[in-house]
Amino acid sequence: MTRTHTESADPLSAMGATRLRTHTADVLTRARDRSAALTDAVDDDDLVAQHSPLMSPLVWDLAHIGSQEEIWLVRDVGGREPLRPDIDDLYDAFQHPRSDRPQLPLLGPGEARSYVGQVREKALHVLDRAPLEGRALTDTAFAFGMIAQHEQQHDETMLATHQLRRGEPALHAPPPPPRRAGTLPAEVVVPGGTFLMGTSVEPWALDNERPAHEVSVDTFALDTTPVTNAEFAAFVDAGGYEDPRWWSGPGWHYRTEHDITAPRFWYRADGTWWRRRFGVHEPVPDDEPVMHVSHHEASAYAAWAGKRLPTEAEWEKAARFDPSTGRSARYPWGDDEPRAEHANLGQRHLRPAPVGAYPEGASPLGVHQLIGDVWEWTSSDFRPYPGFTAFPYREYSEVFFGPEYKVLRGGSFGTDAVAIRGTFRNWDFPIRRQIFAGFRCARDVDGPGSGTGHAGGAGV
Questions:
Q1: Cα dist. 187→8, 69, 367, 408, 436 in Å?
Q2: DSSP secondary structure, 53-64, as one string
Q3: What CATH architecture is 17-164?
Q4: pLDDT of the chain, 460 residues: tens digit per residue
């Protein structure tokens, strides 16, 4: 008998209109509180400075958040008069590369704060009155959820900018919880076969996550936890960065051209690996997931370890598929929204948690920390799913499809819960190291379901 694969039901459609509006306002407020915390933590000179040519000044991100909210919620959904049409081009991310943005006539810190405050007041007024049905952009408050996710994504970008800035620490947070899981196996075997990848029902899912489609993968083994600092240090200390056998051609070229010898922000002192983390200098913790490594570095480690990076489809099957029911859940632990015991999200902590810190967040197959802590590189190019339709604009996903970008999954400690789920797809250039990215390894396994086919349509 052929099993019909299903996914979880829409969690917002059961809400009445009043409850949905309240929930949406809370999500928007959470994002704004975080934006304010990230920008209020430093003085105005710091806000307008460019701490790296890879990143915008923090004040650009802040006003860009307001500009996008004005365009989509105030003007489009609300049909209101524009507040600042004169700045649309300044804050169009496609008009000006990040390295050029400090030279633009940007809003100053005071102007930017005033602007985003005015926009938010009008956006909440629109939320109170706009019908949340009858139009794809407003069904189940999609446009408001899109804007909340957009703001949280820029909050994570601003957090990465804080990591790049020099000087005394400006951000503070309690440490993450300690390891709580018992002895874990090194890897978990994921049985081959078909599962439902992507989503057609998640109300705030973005266009590249859609539609749900069946994908088949062969049996494979996946690391139970992300690769740790201690494991990666063994690769570094074994000369992994000096041996071209482990590197792809482009990876070796980039490594040698830029003299990369360890993860970004690591340095050696008195025979010990240290790191700089948000202005704090500290020994590298052995049991945390390694972070600030590029796709090239992750791939080289995997080759050295006799493994490989997982495909995007393999990662999602390990994260969502419950073999006892044949259903693809929203998260590894099920359908419930992330709670503090499930995953390290939302900038509650300014670092990854030790591996084994979130046993309640494990998948049905026993894979840990697939959500939160560090974004995980996969081997897959960023490509559309079968039946993809750009919505509500091509520039969110479609213009990035192709082999130039690699897919990352799972979110980091700097990712908010509204901007991550089992289907969420991130992407970046394989050279990127300033992002909060790590990885886990996979390997091929002969077993039930192997040879049943290949992962299809997901850039795998």
A1: 27, 43, 8, 20, 23
A2: TTS--HHHHHHH
A3: Up-down Bundle (1.20)
A4: 345 577 766 677 678 899 999 999 999 999 999 999 999 999 999 999 999 999 999 999 999 999 999 999 999 999 999 999 999 999 999 999 999 999 999 999 999 999 999 999 999 999 999 999 899 999 999 999 999 999 999 999 999 999 999 999 999 999 999 999 999 999 999 999 999 999 999 999 999 999 999 999 999 999 999 999 999 999 999 999 999 999 999 999 999 999 999 999 999 999 999 999 999 999 999 999 999 999 999 999 999 999 999 999 999 999 999 999 999 999 999 999 999 999 999 999 999 999 999 999 999 999 999 999 999 999 999 999 999 999 999 999 999 999 999 999 999 999 999 999 999 999 999 999 999 999 999 999 985 444 333 233 333 2
Task: For CATH 1.20.120, list the domain ranges present in the chain.
Answer: 17-164
Sheet of strand 327-328: strand arrangement: 6-7, 327-328, 321-322
Residues 6+ apart with CB under 8 A from 9: 201
- Relative to beta strand 6-7, strand 327-328 is parallel
Q: Within the chain, which residue ranges are assigned CATH 3.90.1580.10?
A: 175-460
Residue 398 neighbours by CB under 8 Å, 6+ apart: 207, 384, 388, 390
Beta strands in 312-449 (DSSP E): 321-322, 327-328, 375-382, 402-409, 426-428, 437-438, 442-444
| 36 vs 66: CA distance, rounded Å | 12
| CATH top class, domain 175-460 | alpha beta
